[in-house]
Amino acid sequence: MRKITLIFVVLFSLSTSKVEAQGIDSLDMTSTFITLGQPWYTDYFTSYRVYTNRSFFKDENGGLHTVFLSNYDLFYCYSDDGSIWTTEQVTNLHNGDFREAVIYADSEGNPYIAATVNPHFDYGNPTGVDFGEEFRYSVYYFFKDGDNWMEEEVYDSTVDPSFSGNYGCRVNELYMNMDGEMVLVGSRYGWYTYGGEFWEFTRDAGGNWSDVSLIHVFSDTPIDHATDVSRSVLKSTGDRDLIYTRSYNASGIPELGYMSYAGGIWSEPTVLTTDLYNHVAWDLSIGTEEEMYLIHFSNNPTPHVNMYTDLESSTELTIDLSMVDAIQIAKIHITEDGILDLFVYPLDSDTVMLYASEDYGLTWTDPLYMERSEAPGVLPVTDQFSSQGLDLEYIRVSRPAGSQPYGPDSLYYNHIELFDSTVGLMGQEQLGDDLSLFPNPFSDMITVKYMLQEPTELIFRISTLQGRVLEERFYIGSTGENQIQFDLSDLSSGSYVLEVLDTERKNGKMRVASRKLVKL
């Protein structure tokens, strides 16, 4: 595998003899192709989720596990370190019937999958579906015995002979509790007087699944009580909190709340906020000391992101959103070193922004920028695994635009290294000699020097913060030191983005680095 290190070094002409550290200001990204899915169709009543917020897991030994759906079939992918991936179909007993899936891996790296299945019709041929049948969800559990996948039925939706249009369970998450039991949390869509519900199933050491355990039923008003995604906050005491969203009025406005489990009893729901852009306008990450970071965002009246750390009150994050008209997605992650990372996807923009905080959210860096086509198209929930140092790991799905059949979807593993480029002596900020960028801030000309281990074609791209490309230059560098110069005298004063991309996808990989530029 060829590795190209693209590390930005910023040089200033200062009279001081030492420059203090400025914080995280650069990133380096590797994108690895995993697999290609199949084209697929959907209908008014039928669709599936290629991924879920629980579709990626890193085990204690560093093994990477992901589960995804391709044309309503179930597949599992694995990699030791993210460089080479294997893909296998989990089962062919329910082809065309899968709706969504979640994954968990134990301390020995053994994978476990829970999936939503509708046995009443073929999702792979979704036309002509009777009204109501789309909600008839059963749940299955899969685990490995040697090289073979084994299957267990957790919940059978066919026990009710009538098509109520509301009977079935969608999987939300799968985890192992303090007693070594597997726990599956799911939700039931609440249609009018049926009420939305959150369910729980437990698998004991003998391999026996419990009946449905009702966490809560929402039936406060005669409307659709759509219970959506939920996340569990596990505690060393065995207690836990369940964070959830649901529709709480006839307009479908989402509500973010939580329920607590202590002493064998679930509490009544506590509403945190209705200040949400939509039902998935929130995210959760948990640190190594069980500390919780729960964010939610809205665009009313202006874009803003708030964070809870104690389920009591939230504070608005002090991040620069001046260039953002509206937020589409926001994701939070805490590394094992206690660094908070926040991804913000502006709506209708080609740029994704990444912020970092080294003081648990009190202050944040200026945004780092990535082109959206190479940035995380999909981010999983990230509190299931520990990232080393300042690294981020996630799965993204790339889908070509167009009408049906949709896809085929491409699955990628992305690895981002965040770093602080400031160390410096004698007025120089530097981390290494592989790549340097100077001066910055600049007036007219800016120079990039870099080292290559072998001849390589690179793209140098300068863009606005909104993602509009102003200049792009292809350059074939030779082994050793290279230098390229940009005349940017025509640019107006302000901030811009420089991206460096390795165009050769050797072994399915691409390298990306990004740095903010300031024109005086």
What does this structure look like?
There is one protein chain. The chain has 520 residues and is mainly β. It has 2 domains: 122 residues, Sandwich (Immunoglobulin-like); 394 residues, Neuraminidase (6 Propeller). The protein is 0% helix and 47% strand. The chain has no helices and 35 strands. The strands form 8 sheets. A 7-stranded antiparallel beta sheet has the order 27-28-1-35-34-31-32, with no helix packed on it. Strands 14, 15, 16, 17 and 18 form a 5-stranded antiparallel beta sheet that branches. Strand 6 and strand 7 form a beta hairpin. The two termini are 41 Å apart. The N terminus is likely disordered.
Reconstruct the topology from this structure.
Blueprint: E1 26-36, E2 56-58, E3 64-70, E4 73-79, E5 86-89, E6 98-105, E7 111-117, E8 138-145, E9 148-155, E10 170-176, E11 182-188, E12 196-203, E13 213-218, E14 227-234, E15 240-247, E16 254-262, E17 265-266, E18 270-273, E19 282-286, E20 292-298, E21 304-308, E22 314-316, E23 327-334, E24 340-346, E25 351-357, E26 368-371, E27 391-398, E28 410-419, E29 435-438, E30 445-452, E31 456-463, E32 469-477, E33 480-487, E34 494-502, E35 509-519
Rg computed from alpha carbons, rounded to a whole number of angstroms: 24 Å
Mean pLDDT across residues: 78
User: Strand tally, please?
Assistant: 35
The secondary-structure class comes to: mainly beta
CATH architecture of the largest domain: 6 Propeller
Q: For the record, what CATH class of the largest domain applies?
A: Mainly Beta
N-C termini distance: 41 Å
Which percent band covers the strand fraction? over 45%
Count of DSSP H/I helices: 0
Report low-confidence residues grouped into runs of 5 or more.
1-22, 375-389, 422-433
Helix content: under 10%
* Main sheet characteristics: 7 strands, antiparallel
What form results from the Cα inertia axes? globular
Number of domains: 2
Which strands sit side by side, in order, in the main sheet?
27-28-1-35-34-31-32
CATH topology of the largest domain: Neuraminidase
